[in-house]
Structure formats: C-alpha cells, structure tokens
Design a protein that fits this description.
With 380 residues, the chain is an alpha/beta fold. The protein has 15 helices and six strands. Helix 1 links the parallel strand 1 and strand 2. Helix 2 crosses helix 3, helix 6 runs antiparallel to helix 9 and helix 7 runs parallel beside helix 13. The radius of gyration is 20 Å and the shape is globular.
C-alpha cells in the first residue's frame, strides 16, 4: 500500500484563507488536488491559515499547527508549496534546528518533508516592503487588502470607490490628500456590501493586518538578509521555484487593460506598486547558478534586468533551488487571480497588469509543480 502524501499550500502576505468564500488558493487547490488524483497519488491537499502580516516565525508556527492537525496520524511524506511570503515560511519550517513554537515540536514533521516549492517568493526581499513601512504605505496596504477581498467576492469595485481612490492615487507621489474622512467613507462603503457575518470576519482580518505588521520589515532587502543568514536548506529536501515577471507599465499595457474605469484604476495601482518594486538595490540582487541563469534566459529570451519584477517582488529575488518554470505573469496570476470570467468557476483579476496570463498557462504551471512534487515517487 502506498504512502499518503500531505501537500500544504502556504499563503503569502495578507493571505485570507480563513474568510469563507474568499479563497486565496481556490483555483490552485482544485487543480492540484485533481492533478494528483489523476496521477493515482493518495494525497491530501491542505490550505494553511496564517496570520496575515505577522512575523515569518509566527507564520511558520501557523504552518506547524496545520501540519500537526492533519499529518499526525501517519508517517507519509510532506510537501510544502508557498506563494510569496509563504515560500519563506516553508524554508524556515525545514531549516535544521528551527524553533518556532513552544507548544509543538517541529523536527518530527520537518524530517518528513520531501519537497519545498516557492512561487513568486521574495528570497532576497522586495523594496515594496520598505515602502509599506511608512504611514502612507500602511494605509495603502489596508485598502489594497480590502479591495482584494471585495473584488474576489463581488467581481469589481463600485464606480464611486474607483473614482474616490483614483483621486487619492493621483496624489500618491507627494503623499497628500489622505484625509481620514475619505478613507473612512471608502472602508464603510465596501464593508457595508458584505453580510453581517462576513463583514465582521473581514473587519477582524483588517484589524489583524493593522495590529501586527512585524512581517513587513523582515521582507525588506536588508531584513531578509538576516533571515537568509539563519535559515539553511535541509539535506534530502528538493527545493524548486516558480518565477514570475510581468510587463512594465506602459501605454500598451494601459490600452490592453481597456477603457473600463475599474480596469484603469487597478492598472494605476499596478503601475504604482511596480514602480516601488523596481527600486531593488543592485547590491542585494542574488547570484544565480549557471543552471538557474540558463532557465531564466530560456524562459525570457535574456537574463531579467535588475528592475524586472512581477509588480510585487523582483524577478531575480524569486529564484531558489531548481527553477521549475519562469513565466510572464504578475504576482497574483500564478495562484489563479487573473481575468478569465468565462471559466467555471471564474478567474477574477483585481490587479490588472496586462500580463496576458490565462488558464492554459496556469494549468501548465501547476502541472509542473505536480511533476516536481511526485518526482521519483512511485505511482500506485
């Protein structure tokens, strides 16, 4: 009888797996579960509930809790797939000697991990985290969190919110115009459209985001240097990475977004965060192995430059272990948040980048992940 595989999907920055129908990994979970089933693999796929912006250590403790609750009944192999910051949580989980929880012992589970896959993860940090450290960045973060949840629930923002937020973004460069009354109006209007139960859950989530933001300084290029210095690969674990690079904002991408006011607003947000992410210090760019470099050149036609990114994380910051695939996609495309409403269930894109990423690329990406998870594993 074959072993049961335990696959954990670890969310990234402000991952909201605990908000009912607002599914962070919805499409990725369903595709990977069915793909493993088609392969004849006895596998349980679990989405992890993490504190949204708590420290990497706290989020890794959340991962340990999920593993303890679902994998204690057998000795089957464990696989970790982390998107964005979730990839860092996965690396710390398997790092020899890591201590993340006083209540649970990590090592018995860490020894069972076979693979770690990171998707668009900031292994060398991201300059966007530096921006979010400021007051303006913190306010924008909370709005973007709420926008994300709203769009995934209702499909798009109300036009009145679009125009109000557009006014704020127009003043973003000099950080003026952030009046508390206007922000309160936007929050109240968006929260008011949820049911009472869901509104309370979303409000609690946003409160958690504001209460504990210790993750943010850890994700700066300077902060992640400390993480990398104390986090080590575990012998016997296979590490692989999925790398994303999106098009720089331009007239072409703006026209591709269409004339819809909502699309134009979200593209403006994309252009703004892309500009912040481009500011990666040259001294913080990691060196790559010949195999990693070859994979990037084959995928993109040339080595990505120092300003290349997916809108949230620099492209060259995402490389770790074997490059499983490198695609043209923005930061959320890879987990299924792109524009394809005709698919059932629909794919909803809240950050319109003009990447052109669609369902065929999504399926190919996650099939590649499945191939890596089951590599050298016997089939039933």
């Amino acid at each position: 009888m074959s072993e049961k595989h335990h696959v954990y999907l670890v969310p990234g920055f402000f991952g909201f797996t605990n908000l009912g129908e607002l599914l962070y990994f919805g499409h990725a979970y369903e595709f990977l579960r069915r793909d493993l089933e088609r392969r004849g693999v006895d596998a349980e796929v679990v989405t992890v509930v993490s504190h949204p912006t708590a420290s990497i250590r706290q989020r890794t403790a959340d991962l340990l809790k999920a593993v303890n609750e679902t994998a204690s009944g057998d000795n089957g192999p464990i696989h970790l797939v982390g998107h964005s910051t979730g990839g860092l949580d996965a690396r710390l989980f398997v790092s020899p000697g890591a201590q993340v929880s006083e209540a649970l012992e990590l090592e018995p589970f860490a020894r069972r991990v076979r693979t770690v896959v990171t998707v668009s993860a900031p292994h060398a940090g991201t300059p966007l985290a530096t921006f979010f450290l400021g007051l303006f960045g913190q306010q924008l973060l909370k709005l973007l969190s709420l926008f994300t949840m709203y769009v995934l629930r209702f499909g798009r923002l109300p036009l009145s919110v679009v125009f109000r937020f557009g006014h704020l973004m127009a003043r973003a460069d000099n950080q003026l115009g952030w009046k508390a009354t206007l922000l309160d109006q936007i929050f109240d209007q968006l929260l008011g459209d949820f049911s009472t139960e869901r509104r309370d859950a979303v409000a609690k989530f946003l409160w958690d985001v504001g209460r504990d933001t210790s993750l943010i300084p850890q994700l700066t290029p300077e902060g992640i240097d400390l993480f990398n210095g104390g986090t080590h690969d575990r012998p016997g674990v296979r590490y692989g990475s999925v790398v994303t690079q999106s098009r720089p904002p331009s007239l072409r991408t703006r026209l591709a977004a269409g004339m819809d006011p909502y699309a134009q607003l979200t593209h403006t947000i994309y252009a703004f965060v892309y500009g912040q992410t481009q500011r990666m210090p040259l001294t913080q760019l990691p060196l790559h192995t010949p195999a990693q470099t070859a994979a990037l050149v084959q995928a993109y036609g040339a080595m990505p430059g120092p300003t290349a990114c997916d809108g949230i994380v620099p492209t060259r910051s995402q490389v770790y272990g074997r490059v499983l695939t490198a695609v043209r996609a923005d930061h959320l495309d890879a987990i299924g948040h792109f524009d394809q409403p005709a698919h059932q269930p629909p794919h909803v894109d809240w950050l319109i980048s003009g990447s052109g990423f669609r369902r065929p690329q999504f399926e190919a990406l996650w099939k590649t992940i499945g191939d890596f998870l089951m590599e050298e594993e016997p089939r039933r």
